[in-house]
Design goal:
With 370 residues, this protein is of the alpha/beta class. It has helices at 2-36, 42-51, 107-113, 117-121, 173-184, 241-256, 290-304, 310-315, 337-347, and strands at residues 59-63, 81-85, 101-103, 126-130, 149-154, 166-167, 188-192, 204-206, 213-216, 235-237, 264-267, 318-319, 333-336, 351-357, 360-365. The strands form three sheets. An eight-stranded parallel β-sheet has the order 6-5-4-3-2-1-7-11.
Length: 370
């Protein structure tokens, strides 16, 4: 498997960047390995040992950042273990919980997030970052050392590591997340927001004409729950076909070997194209009755606005049936879930969208919450 993976990687690199590209990538790998030899990682290894199987027997929700999160009543996860990634912090204002675990492993994304990490790390039980990225960046010196930060060591090739802190990248941070969660002892991992419905982002510039590294020119990200996710001046990778296929191949490998690794992975995501794992209905995973769901949603409302009940908010809001009805005078408003999903990315700059609840969405005007 490793030989086929290596041949495919070399062939793809040669097609896009020629012999020079292979040479540069090889130098980066050698550089990262040499830099890692200079690290004194005894403390980190001990922390990984301490965490092994700490959450044995528990379930955890691994949450991607696809647009389907806007369809997902995430307030139901208030008392669950969760793992989130990258710029998920944009969703914090729409939640009644904070993530248990957080990770960012892509070098471009992590470089952009360096000044924002504290707001996530301080809210999460543990956060995970590459000590030295396989492209050569030494992040262990760029991120403030904290007791709840653990460092991962990225390996080259295709596989699934059971020897943390060593992990195999799989084209997406979620793949490294699976390996981390297994080490922590979770046997049941439930996917949300891993849509794999990617579109080519058009309002971007390429950082290198022969690579897929890009920088966005507008807040119009089409591939995540918020248009600001990889918005203006954010760097990431164009989701070209070979990039997506690499992720799918790794997920398929994991799906075919779940028993070997002692995992049960379920896909509860809305609109997800991932077929590597059995599908399950999200709300069937909970035993909440109507009143309990209402209390959970009201706990989300009360976090953002001084109301004691949904009914109280509804009395002070207008119900809108069309996007054209929104104007500068519109305060808090309510819409159907169907309409909400079509306008969230247009109005999120001025409103906080909360929902869905009972087939409705509730939009709170930001100016009125300050």
């Amino acid at each position: 498997m490793q030989f086929k993976f290596l041949v495919r990687k070399l062939f793809t690199t040669f097609q896009r960047q020629g012999v020079k590209g292979i040479y540069i990538k090889s130098l980066r790998r050698v550089k990262s390995d040499c830099l890692r030899l200079t690290l004194n990682n005894k403390k980190n290894k001990q922390e990984w040992k301490n965490l092994k199987n700490k959450y044995a027997g528990k379930r955890v929700f691994l949450i991607g950042n696809g647009p389907s999160l806007n369809k997902t009543p995430l307030y139901l996860l208030k008392d669950e273990y969760t793992m989130c990634f990258n710029r998920f912090s944009l969703f914090f204002e729409r939640l009644n919980w904070t993530p248990s675990f957080f990770a960012t492993t892509d070098n471009l994304v992590l470089s952009d997030l360096l000044t924002e990490l504290d707001s996530v790390v301080s809210k999460s039980a543990y956060s995970f970052f590459p000590d030295i990225h396989f492209r050569g960046e030494k992040f262990i010196n760029k991120i403030e050392q904290k007791d709840n930060i653990l460092w991962i060591h990225q390996l080259f090739g295709r596989g699934f590591s059971t020897n943390l802190p060593k992990v195999f990248p799989g084209g997406s941070v979620i793949y490294e997340g699976f390996q981390i969660l297994r080490h922590l002892g979770f046997k049941e991992i439930i996917l949300l927001g891993v849509d794999m419905n990617f579109q080519i982002h058009k309002s971007v510039k390429y950082l290198d004409s022969k690579s897929v590294d890009i920088i966005s020119e507008q807040d119009d990200d089409p591939n995540h729950f918020d248009p600001r996710y990889f918005g203006k001046n954010r760097k990431y990778h164009q989701p070209e076909a070979f990039v997506i296929q690499s992720i799918i191949d790794n997920l398929d490998f994991l799906g075919q070997n779940m028993d070997k690794f002692g995992l049960q992975i379920l896909n509860a995501g809305y609109d997800s194209k991932v077929t590597s794992f059995p599908k399950v209905d999200f709300e069937s995973l909970f035993q909440y009755d109507k009143d309990e769901k209402k209390k959970l949603f009201e706990s989300l409302l009360s976090k953002n606005i001084e109301v004691k009940s949904i009914e109280q908010l509804e009395k002070n809001s207008v119900y809108l049936n069309a996007y054209r009805d929104i104007n500068d005078e519109t305060r808090h408003f309510i819409t159907s879930e169907e309409l909400a999903l079509s306008i969230i990315k247009k109005v999120i700059f001025n409103y906080i969208p909360l929902g869905p609840f009972n087939c409705n969405y509730y939009f709170l005007k930001r100016d009125l919450l300050q």
